Amino acid sequence: xxxxxxxxxxxxxxxxxxxxxxxxxxxxxxxxxxxxxxxxxxxxxxxxxxxxxxxxxxxxxxxxxxxxxxxxxxxxxxxxxxxxxxxxxxxxxxxxxxxxxxxxxxxxxxxxxxxxxxxxxxxxxxxxxxxxxxxxxxxxxxxxxxxxxxxxxxxxxxxxxxxxxxxxxxxxxxxxxxxxxxxxxxxxxxxxxxxxxxxxxxxxxxxxxxxxxxxxxxxx
Length: 220
Hints:
single chain, alpha/beta, TIM Barrel, seven-stranded parallel beta sheet, 9 strands, globular
């Protein structure tokens, strides 16, 4: 198992710039598999279910430099617990959730970094703002003084061609540039979290700063 995971990670690292953060999506990985990835130097792991993630975090608490990323849809009632236990939240997908996270992090000494989830193509199976909706909500988002907005996150619909994937990723990059030019005081567009196991190379072509492969790391 360890050798396979090491080989998988080595293969990915050879394809991506050193400046691109490799976030290992460990939602289907065991604790032993996470430890194997950690041994290769991976420090960023992503989960999409709170209770499962908390169990893994408890079993891996001796690995004190792991940075945990949350990538799943968030119910507002779980926002505080997620904010307390994750360094990054990639899936802030509505103004309501952003406002809730802002309120629960008021007294936190170290609030999580967040990405705003966008849908640049219609997809009934995904959450997130459309570009138009996000642009309309930016002023309200900028007023949330405890929300550390660092960039955008995107998950593309299934079944796109490589050319369609690339075009969609480039539209995320374009949206980030458009937001950046508006010079909001609190909204930063430093990060683009996009690209998973099947399309991370295309995402990097479009400017991804964080990629989220899972099966290509942990497949045996």
